[in-house]
Protein backbone atom coordinates (compact mmCIF):
# COMPACT_ATOMS: atom_id res chain seq x y z
CA UNK A 1 0.00 0.00 0.00
CA UNK A 2 1.30 3.45 -0.95
CA UNK A 3 2.23 6.05 1.63
CA UNK A 4 -0.80 8.36 1.69
CA UNK A 5 -0.75 12.00 2.76
CA UNK A 6 -4.25 13.33 3.39
CA UNK A 7 -4.37 16.98 2.37
CA UNK A 8 -7.18 19.23 3.59
CA UNK A 9 -8.05 22.82 4.33
CA UNK A 10 -10.97 25.21 4.29
CA UNK A 11 -12.45 26.74 1.17
CA UNK A 12 -10.05 29.33 -0.25
CA UNK A 13 -7.05 28.02 1.67
CA UNK A 14 -5.19 27.11 -1.51
CA UNK A 15 -5.50 23.32 -1.48
CA UNK A 16 -5.49 23.00 -5.27
CA UNK A 17 -2.42 25.20 -5.72
CA UNK A 18 -0.48 23.29 -3.07
CA UNK A 19 -1.59 19.90 -4.44
CA UNK A 20 -0.40 20.81 -7.94
CA UNK A 21 2.99 21.83 -6.58
CA UNK A 22 3.36 18.46 -4.83
CA UNK A 23 2.26 16.68 -8.02
CA UNK A 24 4.95 18.57 -9.96
CA UNK A 25 7.48 17.00 -7.58
CA UNK A 26 6.27 13.45 -8.30
CA UNK A 27 3.42 12.81 -5.87
CA UNK A 28 0.37 11.08 -7.33
CA UNK A 29 -2.69 13.25 -6.85
CA UNK A 30 -6.05 11.72 -5.88
CA UNK A 31 -8.52 14.59 -5.62
CA UNK A 32 -11.93 13.74 -4.18
CA UNK A 33 -13.40 17.00 -5.54
CA UNK A 34 -12.34 16.02 -9.05
CA UNK A 35 -13.86 12.57 -8.51
CA UNK A 36 -17.11 14.19 -7.33
CA UNK A 37 -17.20 16.34 -10.47
CA UNK A 38 -16.72 13.27 -12.63
CA UNK A 39 -19.45 11.34 -10.82
CA UNK A 40 -21.90 14.23 -11.13
CA UNK A 41 -21.03 15.26 -14.68
CA UNK A 42 -22.96 14.28 -17.79
CA UNK A 43 -23.29 10.48 -17.81
CA UNK A 44 -21.70 10.42 -14.34
CA UNK A 45 -22.26 7.34 -12.21
CA UNK A 46 -24.14 9.31 -9.56
CA UNK A 47 -26.51 11.19 -11.83
CA UNK A 48 -29.31 8.62 -12.00
CA UNK A 49 -29.59 8.60 -8.20
CA UNK A 50 -29.30 12.39 -7.99
CA UNK A 51 -32.06 12.86 -10.55
CA UNK A 52 -34.29 10.34 -8.76
CA UNK A 53 -33.74 12.13 -5.44
CA UNK A 54 -34.03 15.77 -6.54
CA UNK A 55 -35.67 15.86 -9.95
CA UNK A 56 -34.71 17.80 -13.06
CA UNK A 57 -34.44 21.16 -11.28
CA UNK A 58 -30.84 20.41 -10.25
CA UNK A 59 -29.76 19.25 -13.72
CA UNK A 60 -27.96 21.27 -16.37
CA UNK A 61 -29.09 21.00 -20.01
CA UNK A 62 -26.23 18.54 -20.66
CA UNK A 63 -27.48 16.20 -17.91
CA UNK A 64 -24.81 17.04 -15.35
CA UNK A 65 -25.44 18.43 -11.89
CA UNK A 66 -26.23 22.15 -11.70
CA UNK A 67 -24.02 22.94 -8.71
CA UNK A 68 -25.43 26.40 -8.11
CA UNK A 69 -28.99 25.05 -8.01
CA UNK A 70 -27.91 22.18 -5.75
CA UNK A 71 -26.08 24.59 -3.45
CA UNK A 72 -29.19 26.75 -3.08
CA UNK A 73 -31.30 23.69 -2.34
CA UNK A 74 -28.81 22.30 0.18
CA UNK A 75 -28.61 25.57 2.12
CA UNK A 76 -32.39 25.88 2.13
CA UNK A 77 -32.91 22.27 3.22
CA UNK A 78 -30.18 20.55 5.29
CA UNK A 79 -31.81 17.19 4.56
CA UNK A 80 -31.12 17.73 0.86
CA UNK A 81 -27.41 18.14 1.59
CA UNK A 82 -27.44 14.94 3.67
CA UNK A 83 -29.22 13.07 0.89
CA UNK A 84 -26.68 14.26 -1.70
CA UNK A 85 -23.79 13.19 0.55
CA UNK A 86 -25.38 9.76 1.01
CA UNK A 87 -25.38 9.36 -2.77
CA UNK A 88 -21.93 10.76 -3.53
CA UNK A 89 -19.72 9.87 -0.58
CA UNK A 90 -19.74 6.05 -0.91
CA UNK A 91 -18.96 6.36 -4.63
CA UNK A 92 -16.17 8.86 -3.97
CA UNK A 93 -14.64 6.60 -1.32
CA UNK A 94 -14.67 3.59 -3.65
CA UNK A 95 -13.09 5.55 -6.50
CA UNK A 96 -10.47 7.21 -4.32
CA UNK A 97 -9.56 3.85 -2.74
CA UNK A 98 -9.09 2.36 -6.20
CA UNK A 99 -6.90 5.30 -7.27
CA UNK A 100 -4.72 5.03 -4.16
CA UNK A 101 -4.31 1.28 -4.69
CA UNK A 102 -3.41 1.78 -8.36
CA UNK A 103 -0.63 4.18 -7.31
CA UNK A 104 1.24 1.56 -5.27
CA UNK A 105 4.50 2.21 -7.12
CA UNK A 106 4.32 6.00 -6.77
CA UNK A 107 6.71 7.85 -4.43
CA UNK A 108 3.63 8.70 -2.36
CA UNK A 109 -0.03 9.63 -2.81
CA UNK A 110 -1.55 13.00 -2.00
CA UNK A 111 -5.21 12.35 -1.16
CA UNK A 112 -7.02 15.71 -1.31
CA UNK A 113 -10.17 15.68 0.83
CA UNK A 114 -11.83 19.02 1.71
CA UNK A 115 -13.88 17.33 4.45
CA UNK A 116 -11.14 15.05 5.74
CA UNK A 117 -11.49 16.33 9.31
CA UNK A 118 -15.24 15.73 9.24
CA UNK A 119 -14.93 12.22 7.72
CA UNK A 120 -13.20 9.66 9.93
CA UNK A 121 -12.78 7.05 7.19
CA UNK A 122 -10.45 9.32 5.20
CA UNK A 123 -8.34 10.13 8.26
CA UNK A 124 -7.94 6.40 8.90
CA UNK A 125 -6.66 5.84 5.38
CA UNK A 126 -4.01 8.56 5.57
CA UNK A 127 -0.55 7.86 6.98
CA UNK A 128 -0.17 11.57 7.61
CA UNK A 129 -2.47 14.61 7.52
CA UNK A 130 -1.36 17.91 5.97
CA UNK A 131 -3.57 20.94 6.68
CA UNK A 132 -3.38 24.02 4.45
CA UNK A 133 -4.18 26.95 6.71
CA UNK A 134 -4.80 30.66 6.28
CA UNK A 135 -6.64 33.55 7.87
CA UNK A 136 -10.41 33.38 7.44
CA UNK A 137 -10.62 36.89 5.98
CA UNK A 138 -8.14 35.81 3.30
CA UNK A 139 -10.24 32.71 2.56
CA UNK A 140 -13.29 34.90 1.97
CA UNK A 141 -11.35 37.35 -0.22
CA UNK A 142 -9.93 34.56 -2.38
CA UNK A 143 -13.25 32.82 -2.93
CA UNK A 144 -15.23 35.97 -3.69
CA UNK A 145 -12.57 37.04 -6.20
CA UNK A 146 -12.57 33.74 -8.09
CA UNK A 147 -16.19 32.67 -7.88
CA UNK A 148 -18.41 35.73 -7.77
CA UNK A 149 -20.05 34.47 -4.57
CA UNK A 150 -20.87 37.08 -1.96
CA UNK A 151 -18.93 37.23 1.30
CA UNK A 152 -22.07 36.07 3.10
CA UNK A 153 -22.36 33.04 0.82
CA UNK A 154 -18.72 32.11 1.43
CA UNK A 155 -19.18 32.50 5.19
CA UNK A 156 -22.20 30.19 4.99
CA UNK A 157 -20.06 27.55 3.29
CA UNK A 158 -17.32 27.99 5.87
CA UNK A 159 -19.85 27.52 8.65
CA UNK A 160 -20.53 23.99 7.37
CA UNK A 161 -16.83 23.09 7.49
CA UNK A 162 -14.49 22.30 10.35
CA UNK A 163 -12.91 25.28 12.07
CA UNK A 164 -9.24 26.18 11.76
CA UNK A 165 -8.68 24.88 15.29
CA UNK A 166 -10.37 21.55 14.52
CA UNK A 167 -8.25 21.05 11.40
CA UNK A 168 -5.05 21.91 13.25
CA UNK A 169 -5.97 19.45 15.99
CA UNK A 170 -5.81 16.48 13.60
CA UNK A 171 -2.85 17.76 11.57
CA UNK A 172 0.56 16.13 11.49
CA UNK A 173 1.80 19.03 9.35
CA UNK A 174 0.41 22.55 8.90
CA UNK A 175 1.30 24.67 5.88
CA UNK A 176 0.46 28.34 6.30
CA UNK A 177 -0.55 29.72 2.90
CA UNK A 178 -0.86 33.47 3.36
CA UNK A 179 2.04 34.69 1.22
CA UNK A 180 3.12 34.16 -2.35
CA UNK A 181 4.96 31.31 -4.05
CA UNK A 182 8.32 32.54 -2.74
CA UNK A 183 7.16 31.73 0.79
CA UNK A 184 5.33 28.55 -0.19
CA UNK A 185 7.90 26.70 -2.30
CA UNK A 186 10.59 26.13 0.38
CA UNK A 187 7.93 24.76 2.73
CA UNK A 188 6.64 22.37 0.07
CA UNK A 189 10.16 21.24 -0.80
CA UNK A 190 10.82 20.43 2.85
CA UNK A 191 7.56 18.51 3.26
CA UNK A 192 8.17 16.65 0.00
CA UNK A 193 11.55 15.42 1.25
CA UNK A 194 9.95 14.37 4.54
CA UNK A 195 7.20 12.42 2.79
CA UNK A 196 9.69 10.67 0.52
CA UNK A 197 11.65 9.57 3.59
CA UNK A 198 8.52 8.40 5.42
CA UNK A 199 7.29 6.55 2.33
CA UNK A 200 10.63 4.79 2.02
CA UNK A 201 10.55 3.81 5.68
CA UNK A 202 7.03 2.39 5.30
CA UNK A 203 8.06 0.43 2.22
CA UNK A 204 11.04 -1.15 3.96
CA UNK A 205 9.03 -1.89 7.10
CA UNK A 206 6.51 -3.81 5.00
CA UNK A 207 9.09 -6.09 3.44
Automatic annotation (TrEMBL):
It comes from the Bacteria. ATP binds at residues 12-17. Gene3D superfamilies: P-loop containing nucleotide triphosphate hydrolases. GO terms for molecular function: dephospho-CoA kinase activity. Its EC number is 2.7.1.24. Keywords: ATP-binding, Coenzyme A biosynthesis, Cytoplasm, Kinase, Nucleotide-binding, Transferase. Pathway: Cofactor biosynthesis; coenzyme A biosynthesis; CoA from (R)-pantothenate: step 5/5. It holds the Pfam family CoaE. Its main location: cytoplasm. It catalyses: 3'-dephospho-CoA + ATP = ADP + CoA + H(+). It is found in: Cytoplasm. It is an enzyme of class 2 (transferase). InterPro entries: Depp_CoAkinase, P-loop_NTPase. Belongs to the CoaE family. Catalyzes the phosphorylation of the 3'-hydroxyl group of dephosphocoenzyme A to form coenzyme A. This is Dephospho-CoA kinase. It comes from Candidatus Accumulibacter phosphatis. The lineage of its organism: Bacteria, Pseudomonadati, Pseudomonadota, Betaproteobacteria, Candidatus Accumulibacter.
Amino acid sequence: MSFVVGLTGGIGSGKSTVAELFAARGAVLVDTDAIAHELSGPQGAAMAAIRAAFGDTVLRPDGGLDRAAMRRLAFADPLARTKLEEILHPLIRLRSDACCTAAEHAPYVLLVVPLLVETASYRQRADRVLVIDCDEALQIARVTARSGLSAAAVQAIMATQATRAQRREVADDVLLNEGGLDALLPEIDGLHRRYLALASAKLHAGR
